[in-house]
């Protein structure tokens, strides 16, 4: 941007010939100093230590800070430049609300002596090997329970820590921390996957822009996608209209990274079309629409990579995991029932730092694109290098 004489920039901003945001970005101490001294009457002493100098210099920094803050205030008015609490408020003003974090929960299968009482508030945890960097996860029972005549009882527990950190793999929880005697074993037969972190800025912004650009219009496919994504944990949605005749809608929900989310099926169903009032418009869905919610199942894809060549300082040892993550991320972009394009996977590998070249790529042992079956989400399950 050319240096502007005197205060001509004010007129240019008013005329629309100068970008005010760009101009504000250039207002550092030096540019402010030049303009201020232009306004000092000729003949006055402005040398270091003079009265004018001491009066002017301390304000330059404050003016620079003020211009910086003013520029950011202008940008924060636009969601694309907003973040954190400001983005939360911008989205809420348009009826889009940041999804809160949720606690992981599930059932423990406990075996023990018949009649053993397990009070509400009983503490459980996983086991961490000595010296491990993994964190201990704590869970608390919610209701009073008693071991039945068959020596077993299912106890509902909730993670003490909110968010995805409370999720657990199957059979991970196995410790009784409350000192209850006569318990033989503790386990969680199924994984806990319903702990969700607070929605990130990029996800909230995407939903906000989607609503603004595709306004609600009475129950079309896009409306169902927006409504389902309001439930914490739902990342992607596919909608099948008239799937079981007139007035029926099937909604397929997907979690982060394309993962199935069976724990959220009932929650999304109640949000869209409550089971005890189907078709009555008691949820988000309009009157007359009977909604069925399912989660996707993964369609396993095996990737074989041969003839890898590396830049100096790189090898399969220090690039292997990056290649696997790049491939998984690329395939995860494909929607339910979509086409997995082999050249997209090849391109993802080429852009992994350290990869110089490779021989061939096979997907499910074929050197061609893969059409994912309807209702299934493609997911990379195995990656092999030179047949290993």
Span between termini? 57 Å
Which residues sit in consecutive blocks of at least 5 with pLDDT less than 50?
1-6
The gross shape turns out to be extended
How large is the count of helical segments?
10
Helix share, percent: 25-40%
Q: How many domain regions? A: 4
Chain-averaged pLDDT = 90
Strand order of the largest sheet: 7-3-4-6-1-8
Estimate the strand proportion: 15-25%
H/E series: HHHHHEEEEEEEEHHEEHEEEHEHEEEE
Radius of gyration, in Å, reads: 30 Å
Structural class: alpha+beta
The counted number of beta strands is 18
The biggest sheet, with number of strands, parallel, antiparallel or mixed sense and barrel status, is: 6 strands, antiparallel
Short description:
With 388 residues, the protein is an alpha+beta fold.
